Q: What sequence folds into this?
């Protein structure tokens, strides 16, 4: 067992344990903070897979952006003073059965398939340079469209969330 | 113990995916449903990056993972705006109590 394996199991444990806390915690604030460790663990897995740029983007967008957004969502949609911050659950038993069945089938398929595995040749220093080249050559149309989509989403979110004016 | 390889990452992503599904179908709070959605997107991303590493496809998998992250950011912004509007209209975000499109 070399250092790579140990680090892998460490990050895998962080990811799975915190993801389990996310979906089972009664208090939604605990869930939101546990999600932080899930995103962090996934970023660690990306580093182990040689995707350094994706890992940094994961930390910046998910931890820095989406998680803060979700925390704002939690705070703005709960009456903090009236201890209504706990969230109810429903259909626990069928959900456990369904999710366990799905996990079992997926793991069996993943473990049973004889993947043709061949290590990709990544650049020695960083993948950012190569990623930038691919983004602006092969994927340039999708890249530009995603930029427009982000702009539309920004305007749309601001429009939907804004308070309606009385003048109407 | 076997050497960590492609299968290990795929198994992690399968468990993460199932946890996300579990979170979506059991929790009442709409924000919790969103968190389950983020777990699922992350598990898909692990698969993309893992296949990019262990299959000989160059960086294509990583590029798709990048696009998924961008879409997740847009989706989270829109969804939370909708959740805020629902809260303003119904004063609750429990998805089992919201059964009208309009007051």
A:
């Amino acid at each position: 067992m070399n250092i790579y394996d140990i680090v892998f199991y460490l990050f895998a444990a962080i990811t799975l344990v915190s993801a389990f806390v996310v979906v089972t915690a009664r208090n939604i604030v605990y869930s939101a903070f546990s999600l932080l460790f899930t995103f962090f663990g996934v970023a660690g897995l990306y580093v182990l897979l040689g995707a350094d740029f994706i890992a940094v983007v994961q930390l910046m967008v998910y931890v820095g952006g989406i998680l803060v957004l979700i925390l704002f969502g939690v705070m703005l949609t709960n009456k903090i003073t009236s201890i209504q911050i706990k969230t109810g659950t429903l259909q626990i038993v069928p959900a456990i059965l369904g999710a366990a069945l799905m996990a079992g089938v997926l793991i069996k398929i993943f473990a049973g398939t004889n993947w043709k595995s061949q290590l990709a040749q990544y650049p020695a220093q960083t993948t950012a340079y190569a990623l930038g080249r691919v983004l602006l050559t092969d994927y340039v149309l999708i890249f530009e469209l995603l930029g427009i989509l982000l702009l539309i989403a920004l305007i749309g979110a601001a429009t939907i969330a804004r308070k309606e004016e009385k003048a109407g | 113990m076997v050497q960590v390889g492609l299968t290990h990452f795929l198994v992690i992503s399968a468990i993460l995916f199932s946890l996300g599904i579990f979170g979506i179908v059991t929790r009442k709070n709409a924000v919790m449903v969103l968190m389950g959605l983020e777990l699922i997107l992350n598990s898909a991303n692990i698969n993309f990056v893992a296949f990019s590493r262990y299959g000989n496809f160059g960086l294509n998998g990583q590029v798709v993972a990048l696009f998924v992250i961008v879409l997740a950011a847009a989706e989270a912004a829109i969804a939370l705006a909708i959740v805020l509007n629902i809260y303003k209209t119904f004063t609750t975000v429990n998805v089992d109590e919201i059964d009208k499109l309009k007051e």
Remarks:
- Chain B touches chain A through 73 residues (CB under 8 Å).
- Residues 9 and 50 of chain B are 7 Å apart (CA to CA).
